[in-house]
């Protein structure tokens, strides 16, 4: 059953025992802007009280010197939001806060719970009143109702929720970095000047001057105290540990190329996807052009493997956001139409190979092909650095109902014909696994093998 509440693919950043923590978080969020452009927020504490500021828009639009000066303290957490369903409104902006018997608690969440509907109904039948339409608020209510200290309440909450979550939870004197037992979403731990920082991606450590220490392990709770001590709790006993299932769309598309996720360079992974494409789909063409920015590194890998030059015939307007993370199809298409322009003289009369990171709905890909045809390209071939998306994602990526996916019920040749291509090729699932290495990844959007049972009318 399709949930009635927003799912989201977001960026979170936290700083503990760091001077001017809110400014540090602001800088970190600016490097995570690609993970959410809809809204953002920061909550800080000086050990006595909470301070917060939220707003709709980009980090640079919501925060300035004046607002940051009001966020006192040496501990803070922040959030960039990208909602994929539901309303885009200020009340859903995170971090979320609650005042309960455990005191003030703030929470920032990256991911998507799959049993939100059932848990929300149970909580509401018990008298819970919700202020937002996010699945993240469900976790706050579970924490508030637990008859246990916060550390134990977090464990109990983790035992009840299903799906994807990387979390930052903050009280007046502690912060908790938490990753779901499958490790669907990335979360990394860094150190700076005796303090700690936590980020969805390691690229944000660079801007704040932090040193990457390690990833938060799947199922782990890392506890960081305002006093500066840190300790780790394992939420899932080792004998019950689940096989890691990091979202494969992180290295394919979502993460920045200057990040390291679970020990793997995103840049190197994308370059190797291109090299693997060259092994699986060599093409005789005159020019290789990527769709920026997602296909650029894979195209470089492809060209390197076959000795072909890569030309940036498509140029990107960097003042336009990422079309994929817009909450509506109308906005996606509007942004896509204004995002890329073509240097027509580079492709006229040429056999063109286009490389992109994915084809989801196919709308924008079809427009790009039509653009090339009108510019006089003699042949247009396309390669995609991942397998065909045939299944919806239940863990926080906006892959829609199967009926809206370009690859659902269609062969590769049929997709090529629909897009107006002379040929189309995808990286094989085995090829992608070869590139990403032995550590486990989730490929459910490609093969339908969901690590957790998808929500249904009966289960939700």
What do these coordinates show?
There is one protein chain. This protein has 460 residues and is α+β, with helices and mostly antiparallel strands. The protein has helices at 21-30, 59-62, 65-69, 116-125, 136-145, 150-160, 203-208, 249-254, 266-280, 296-306, 329-339, 363-374, 412-419, 429-436, 444-447; strands at 11-16, 39-45, 50-56, 75-81, 96-100, 103-113, 163-170, 174-179, 188-192, 195-199, 211-215, 220-225, 230-234, 246-247, 260-261, 264-265, 287-290, 314-316, 340-342, 351-356, 379-384, 423-426, 441-442. The chain is 28% helix and 25% strand. The chain has a seven-stranded antiparallel β-sheet with strand order 3-2-4-1-10-9-11. Strands 5-6-7-8-12-13 form a six-stranded antiparallel β-sheet. α13 (412-419) links the parallel β21 (379-384) and β22. α5 packs across α6 (150-160) and α9 (266-280) runs antiparallel to α14. It is globular.
Number of self-contained structural domains: 2
Number-wise, the strands total 23
Q: In what range is the share of β-strand residues?
A: 25-35%
> CATH superfamily assignment of the largest domain?
Aminohydrolase, N-terminal nucleophile (Ntn) domain
Q: Using the CA coordinates, give the radius of gyration.
A: 22 Å
The unreliable regions are: 1-8, 322-329
Overall SS class: alpha+beta
How do the strands of the widest beta sheet line up side by side? 3-2-4-1-10-9-11
CATH architecture level-2 label of the largest domain: 4-Layer Sandwich
Brief overview:
By secondary structure, this protein is of the alpha+beta class. 28% of the residues lie in helices and 25% in strands.
